[in-house]
Amino acid sequence: MGINMDIKNNKLLISLENISKSFDGQLILDDLNLLIRENEFVTLLGPSGCGKTTLLRIMGGFETPDTGRVVFDGSDITGLPPNKRQLNTVFQKYALFTHMNIAENIAFGLRIKNKPKAYIQDKISYALKLVNLAGFEKRMPDSLSGGQQQRIAIARAIVNEPKVLLLDEPLGALDLKLRQDMQYELIRLKNELGITFIYVTHDQEEALTMSDTIVVMNQGYIQQIGTPEGIYNEPENAFVADFIGESNIIDALMIEDKAVALLGAQFACVDTGFGKRKPVDVVIRPEDVELVKPAEGTIQGVVSHLIFKGVHYEMEVTANGFEWLVHSTGMFPVGTPVGIKVDPFNIQIMNKPASEDEEAVSLEL
């Protein structure tokens, strides 16, 4: 769930303008534009190699764009080194100093800035309480669990009072239970600190759980920007639909407004403005496919696969040459003839790209 649903009214904090970056002749980011507001949890989401970490490193000052600029709070910071920016980065590899105890790790940046000893001690105590590790001052990093080490890395970042916390796949090395626990910790920290979080991940569940805004990236382009609910329910293209959760993506023909033909049958939908007899892509989420008696379905099929997932059954239904993915609390054994129904509101129509390279236009937040 999004954390702060009023971010549209918040002050603009970071503006990435026409950012391009190449490595060894390979284009990683292509004329990318993005606006980020104060107190916003923004997740850069996409597959490996899509450019999300490079974009984060450009914001943090660890990489310089080939073209474009980074504007922070109204000032161009494109050429500033990391230590001159009001942004702190937490990496996947926690980068704790193994020869220093926890207090010394947290105090490292403050000592470089020549802060008074009493000030540093207060900040250490405050940061450890914030990450629920009070009393760990004298412990050494190698005595801590992965989740505890990650919290220390976050504590070390927040004592510097950054306006923005950059997090590069910080939970990637944790097991599932710890990762879920840390997701809630990050949400709590973000709310208590009132700072902007920019988070990089390829994990869709993390993005949907924590974000105010998700920026879906692929091949150096922004594919879609929106709330978790908006991106899940209204994907703008087949890549987003396929990457955010599981989907049935089907070649179809828009007959006219509110009527689409797919797999040899006509389905009612609510979309308009696509024209008549126009090829389109249809997205139907697995949980939106209703299995009924064969005679009651718009099309008919047979259950070909069944897995129990705990809260629901995951089934594959072969119907008119297509393998439908279905999530349902009702169980239909393999071999059962079924009908398929879909509520018109749950059929998402998308334009087919004009070419394989056509990309979604970057949207402003």
Report on the architecture of this protein:
The protein contains 8 helices and 20 strands. The protein has 365 residues and is an alpha+beta fold.
Estimate what percentage of residues fall within beta strands: 25-35%
- Indicate the mean pLDDT: 88
Number of helices: 8
Largest sheet: spatial strand order: 6-7-8-3-9-10
Largest sheet: 6 strands, mixed
Give the H and E element order: EEEHEEEHHHEHEHEEHHEEEEEEEEEE
Relevant terms:
single chain, 365 residues, 8 helices, disordered C terminus
Sum this structure up briefly.
With 365 residues, this protein is α+β, with helices and mostly antiparallel strands.
Topology record:
Elements: E1 12-23, E2 26-37, E3 41-45, H1 52-60, E4 67-72, E5 75-76, E6 87-90, H2 102-112, H3 117-130, H4 146-158, E7 164-168, H5 176-193, E8 196-201, H6 204-210, E9 213-218, E10 221-226, H7 228-233, H8 238-243, E11 248-256, E12 259-262, E13 265-268, E14 278-284, E15 290-292, E16 299-308, E17 313-319, E18 322-328, E19 337-341, E20 348-351
Parallel strand pairs: 3-8, 3-9, 6-7, 7-8
Antiparallel strand pairs: 1-2, 1-4, 4-5, 9-10, 11-12, 11-14, 12-13, 14-20, 15-19, 16-17, 16-19, 17-18
